[in-house]
Each structure stands twice: as structure tokens, then as C-alpha cells.
Amino acid sequence: MPNGSPEGIQPESTTSLTENLACNGCRKSKLRCSRDRPNCLHCRKTGLECVYETKRVKPGLKAGAVENLHRRLDDLEQRLDEQVVHARNVHTQSDSQSNESTAYTVLALLAAELPKLLKSPANAPTPTFIPPTQPNNKRRRLDSIEAKEYVHATMENMPPLPHRQLLGEVVTAYFRHVHPWIPMIHQGKFLRTYVADTEDREVLIVLQAMIVSSSKFIPGTPMAHTLPSVRRWVVSTAMDHISLGGLQALIIVAFDDIGSGNTPKAWSIVGSLTRTVEYAQLAQEHDDGELRPFCPPYASLRRTSDWTELEERRRVFWNVFLLDRFCSVTMGWNTSLTSHDVYRRLPCDGHLWRKQNPVQTPYLGIWDKSRGRIGNPIGYASRFASPSGTEHDVGLHQDQANSAPPATSMSNIAADMSTVGAFAYNIEATESMSRIMSYFLQQKINVRDSNDINSWLTRFKELDLRLVHWKMLLPQKWKANPNLTKPVELMDPNLTTAHVTHNASMILLHQIVAYPLPHWGFRNRLPSACSAEACYSAGVEIASITEKYVAKSPPDSPVGNQYGFCLFIAARVLLAHWRYTVGSQLPTEFWSLVQSLDEMSRRWMALSESSANAQTLFSKYSNRLRHLYDVCLADQGYQIDIMDHTIELDHHDRVPRPAEANDWSDATPGFPLDIPELEVLPSPANTMDLNAIPQMMLDQDFMDMDRVIAFDDGSMFAAAFEPSIGFW
């Protein structure tokens, strides 16, 4: 080998470098080293070990040390979380012992990991950068220690989350079983946020709510005994401050409480939600039009221009709106969200939202209660007009508004309905049912005053025309098609609920005319036969639609609470029709509805380990129907009070209604049909002949109206989504 090569001169240069080195003792003392071998002069005087280091180690962390430390800490945290979960499940130690054990474990693991880090070779390869979006690798860290401490402070006492695989099953079960009935969380956006930051406060609250509502759909889940404490934590934490995630979590909990038969628990949550959505400015559209208040309200939520998030907020409001209407119709309470509060566009079609395609939807007209009293035409009950002033405030079928000038043409009233989907139509149908309760059944009239009766029957006919109008103006893709040969393979849950709700609304509207109270002196002049036929047809069609839906839907998929209420109303009116109609037989559809409620109860319970006495909302409905049937068999003179559906279901915390609360019925649970008509004394202020009042309702057009939606009406129930993608 040539002497000029680097390899040839290496020993000589190494020897020269060694001779010029100072020992470690002199370097630390900052003295000039004599470089004597084996010990220098300073080391001989002090008795220190004289060590010459040929290769000096540079100060500071080695290459890749930070990434290596982060990775080890992640592993340490994961192992620590698993130990905490295990310790809480077995409950073998006290809290103080658990804290000491946890602290000892942390110190032991750190002591074991740090020597490995310090002994890592200096020439170790630098770890490859791993994107923080991958769930099994390094997650994105908080920007500051203060932010992390804040998250831990707000998440104090949070129930431990299950391991990642089980948590993924919970999220999947939620979007498969619960989301179709309360579609308010954008699945793709939520999963991206969850993967990117598992310490996001709103994500954690929603995840815990998903555990409460969806863990029962997972076989072998060990979380059943912790669900009550998880629910309490979700409610208390979500009410700590106003946030979108907190509202979503409360909606999930309220929906689950109602379906699980714990309706009183949901009442306070729904009441809080109806006010909180107003505080969060979710009941109003923003940046729409030129009208602005002089004093702007405080914004609880941050402003955003992301259309996907804006639609998510809009859907959160409409789900609260549906809960408010559900409580109003089922319990007979006043609505909390009124026309003075609500000025919202309808939610868009779920496909457009999932694909994040921005669109604009029409407004829903909310009737003004002050203008909707008996005696005022409901054509002037809507409150708002659109911001542009060129079109009316419309619902799905062009509700009239009072603020547009009389010269406005019908072309201005038309709304583009191509951007809305089944969820929006369900909202419209639910609002129609709520209008019947608020503007007809809850109105107070004097049955001895012909003017009051005349106005009340006029309102009845107006609402009847509105319902028929809704059915007639359904989109072309959902209208009846007699040439349809392809069977409906999958029924959309929201669209099916909308149509069943429409038929149940017909029952609620017509049943009081079909089966009038015996002391009404004008009851023989009512179109009772026509209304009874409408009620009977609606009940039969609800049974038929439900049979098809239960058969075509997955056997493990639950059904929404409002659907169950509609079945209860339908079965109840069939039972009343049997008792009021001489010589009739109880239709088989009654038992079909009862069996459907039993099946819905089974699906709702799923795999939960509840006690044998636990009852869902659906089982309460079916048990009540069986009880009414048994009472009718035992007492041939018993008649069902047709208007008692709001008070006859036992909610445990219910305050008994005094007998005089309903002036239209006697104190007995039923009344025989052969009670003679009571003499109706005319009001001193009005002596009009009561027998002449109902004649306006006996025209042929009124009798021949097509009121009820049947399953055979074409593709009115077909789902427009792909089953592989999910329900939207």
C-alpha cells in the first residue's frame, strides 16, 4: 500500500493526536497538563486516576434522541393507561394505594428506559418522520404545557376510554345504528379530528356519549356497569360550557334516555338544549341579508367559514328542534323553540354534506303562536320572510308568509327543493304534527259558543288541507308511480319516519272528530264517518309500512323514538275504532303494530345486560296497548278517552292529573256510547244554531281527499344512499 495513502499515515497521526491530549483531571480543573505517562504531575499530587480520552464525546443530545424519547414516552403512556383501566375494572385497591402504585410504575418504567436512551450509540440512524395523523404512532402534541394542563383540568375525573380497538368498534356502531336517527356529526370530519388529536376536549365528550348510546350493540363489551357514571360525567361536563361537541353529546344522551324508557331524565336535558342553542346562536342564520341588530349578541362559538361545519351546526339545531317537538306532542307541553327564536335554513341532502358540496337550502316557516290562535287564518301565521325579500319564508311546500307584499308572484314563492333530503322532510312532517297539537288540540274553546266551534272547525279544515297539500307536493322522485316494477329494497329511515309521522298527524287531527265526546250537542252533525275512515286507513297503512320496514332493515338496527310514538297512536286509534263501531272486529293490524313495538324494543335493548324489569319506550307502548285491550275485554262498556294519549303512559315521575283538568271529558276512565246528548246551553253573547255550523265540512271535495300515504305509493320510501357508505 503506498505510504501517501490515508490508511498509511493513520497510525502516525493517531499517535500525534494522543500525545497532545490533556487528561480528564486537568481538563476539569482547567490546568496545563504535563502529559506524563502513565500519570501526569497534577494527578500524582492529587491522587486522581489519570485518564486520556482519545475520542472526546461532544455535549448535548445524540442524533434522534428526541424522537426516540417521544416514542418511548408514548409507549409508556399507553402501558400506564392500560394499567389504570385494569385497576379500575377489578377494584382491588383503594384510591390511595392505586395512586402510589401508579407513581411507582411510572418511576420504574422511566428508570428502565432512560439508561437505554443514554447508552444508544452516537452513530444511530435518525428515525424517519412519521406523520401525526397515523393513530398507532406519535400523535400531535399540544403547543404548550399550559394548554395540556388546561385539557387535563377540564377532563378531571373523566371515565377511562376503552382500548383503541374497542373504541373503534364503538364509533363504528354509533354511525351504523344511532347516527341515522340523529344525523348531526360529519363522519369523515370527526374521524380525522379523532385520529389527529385524541386529547381534543369536544372529541372526548362525544366519544363518551357514543359509549353510552352504542356500547350495547357490541358483543362482549365490558363497559355495561360503568355506563351510568359515564352518562353523569357527559352531562355535567357538557354543561360546563357551551360547545358544539357538548351539544352533540347531550343530544345523544337525551335520545338514548328517551328510547331506553328513562324519559324524565331527558326532559331537563331537552329543556336546557332548547335554550343553549339560542345562546350559541344556532337558531338563527348569520350573514344572510342586510338586517342587523344594533346590539349584537355574544358569540359563544367561534366564527367559521367552513361550510361543512356550518351544516353540522345547522343539523345540531334541527335535532334539538325535533326533541323539543317530540316532547311537546307526546306530553302535551308547549314548544320552547318558537317563531320568535327560529330563523333557520333546512339541512341539506346527506350525500351533499358527506361529499362536502356547499349548497343553499330553503327556510322552514315556523308559525307565530300569537297569530295562530283559533279564529285567525293560518295563512298569515308564518313569521319570517327570506332575507332577500324576493321570496317567502317557505317550508318544504311553500308555506305562506305574512311579510311579503301582496303583489308578490307565485314564482317568487317557489323554493329549490333539490338540495334537501329525507332528514329535512322528516323535520317538516314533525312540525306538521306539532302544529296540530299547538294550533288545534291545545286551543281552548267554549263548546257552548257557536263562534268558537265555528272557528275551531275552520281550523280543523285548514290543517287537514295543509296535510293533504304536503302529500301532494312531495318531490317527483318520491311520488306514487303506478308503473313501478322494481321493489323497494332498502327503506330510508328518515323518509319512512316522515311518512309515518304524516299518517299519525292525520290520526291526531281527525280522531277527535271521528270519535267526539258524548256531551257535545253538535257531535251528530260532525263528519265523523269521513274522519273515522281517515283514522282507520292511516292506522292500517302505518302497520303495513312498519311491517315492510322491519322486514327490510337489518335485524340489529334500532328504530327512532318518534317512529315508536306513531305506532302507539296508530294502534290506539284502531282499538278505539273497534270499540266505537258497532259489530266491528278488532283489525289484525292492531296486533301487527304491537308486535312491531316488541321487535323495536328488542332491537333497542340489543346486547345490553339490563335488568328484567327494565322497559324501553317501545315496550311501554306495547304494554299499555295490551292493557287497554284487556280492559276493553273485561268491561264491555269501557270506551277509550281518545285525547288521553299524553297522560296515560306511566313515566314514574308524573304528577297525577286532577279530574277537572280536562273540561271535555268526565272523571271516569271511559264513557258508554249510549249516553244521551247533553243539552247545550247557548252563550248569552251568541245564539246561533249549532246544528248549522258543521255544514261547511260536508262538501264532496272534503270527503274525497287523498289523505293517507300508503306503502304502495311508488318509491316514496326508497333509500337514496348506498348501504356500504352508511346512513345520511
From TrEMBL:
Keywords: Metal-binding, Nucleus, Transcription, Transcription regulation. One of its GO terms (molecular function) is DNA binding. The keyword Ubl conjugation does not apply. It holds the Pfam family Zn_clus. Residues 22-52 form the Zn(2)-C6 fungal-type domain. InterPro entries: TF_fung, XnlR_reg_dom, Zn2-C6_fun-type_DNA-bd_sf, Zn2Cys6_DnaBD. GO terms for cellular component: nucleus. GO terms for biological process: DNA-templated transcription. It comes from the Eukaryota. It is found in: Nucleus. This is Zn(2)-C6 fungal-type domain-containing protein. It comes from Ophiobolus disseminans.
